[in-house]
Amino acid sequence: MDRPTLATDKMLCTVDNGVGTMTYNHPERRNAVNHEMRLAIIEILTSFAADPDVRVVVVTGAGGKAFVSGADVSEFGALRSTPDQIADYNEVARRAGAAWALVDKPIIAMIRGYCLGGGLMTALNADIRIATEGSQFGIPAARLGLGFGFGGVTALVDVVGRAAAAEILYTGDRYSAADALRMGLVNRVVADDALERTVHDMAATISGNAPLTVRSLAVGLREAVKEPAERDGARIAELYEACMASEDYVEGRRAFMEKREPVFKGR
């Protein structure tokens, strides 16, 4: 499948051995997200969602200092000064947020450095978050007088629970990777030099598993955090039945009996 041709070099995407990697490439501003990056994010995530060669997605930041540090406030004067500009800006931001929901595949956030504000919200789009020991987390809205959307509140509560979310939001403090692990904000904390290897090994494991099963699990996990009345039970059932009727299910059973690694084809 053709890869998207991006209008900016501040977002990068690659696909290798079943792993699609999206990199925030704005290190001079600690990977703060600007308007052109949001447009590229929409293209990349839409492409990954539609690409059968992508079995798992890794999201990371370039430069070694930050995962994502939030929105690029330097462009607010030019792009958020009039009601029309604000409406356009918010619409692109909404579309970028919605693009994550298109990716019915596992998403891993590979976090090094600052993961603050909108950057933490970006990380919460991932199913799994792995961070280095020196990473820092926080949502400073209360220290800046910013409004913080209800969608962000619920996303945080879904991951860490109401009490930890209240502490993070009310104080606006920064938290260490050890604190983030204690709160359940990240899955693992690793040494800086072990981050890429840890994420690569996990992504390779997931990519080697049965694609139809992994997809059904990804959808099920995301539906599970919705209110019961909002869950797409029909789709969950459809994906489950597709697994049970698949060639991969036959291959998995055969490989188990023959004591060998299965070769899954996604059908």
Could you walk me through the main structural features you see in this protein, from its secondary elements to its overall organization?
- With 267 residues, the chain is of the alpha/beta class.
- The chain folds into two domains: 11-206, 2-enoyl-CoA Hydratase, Chain A, domain 1 (Alpha-Beta Complex), CATH 3.90.226.10; 210-258.
- It contains twelve helices and ten strands.
- It has helices at 35-50, 76-79, 83-102, 118-124, 141-144, 150-160, 162-171, 177-183, 195-208, 211-224, 233-244, 247-258; strands at residues 11-16, 19-24, 56-61, 66-68, 107-111, 114-116, 128-132, 136-138, 174-176, 188-190.
- The strands form two sheets. A six-stranded mixed β-sheet has the order 1-2-3-5-7-10, sandwiched between helices.
- α1 (35-50) runs parallel beside α3 (83-102) and α6 packs across α7 (162-171).
- The longest helix has 20 residues, at 83-102.
- It is globular and about 60 Å long.
- It starts with 10 loop residues before the first strand and ends in a 9-residue tail after the last helix.
- The model has no long low-confidence stretch (mean pLDDT 91).
SSE topology:
Elements: E1 11-16, E2 19-24, H1 35-50, E3 56-61, E4 66-68, H2 76-79, H3 83-102, E5 107-111, E6 114-116, H4 118-124, E7 128-132, E8 136-138, H5 141-144, H6 150-160, H7 162-171, E9 174-176, H8 177-183, E10 188-190, H9 195-208, H10 211-224, H11 233-244, H12 247-258
Parallel strand pairs: 2-3, 3-5, 4-6, 5-7, 6-8, 7-10
Antiparallel strand pairs: 1-2, 8-9
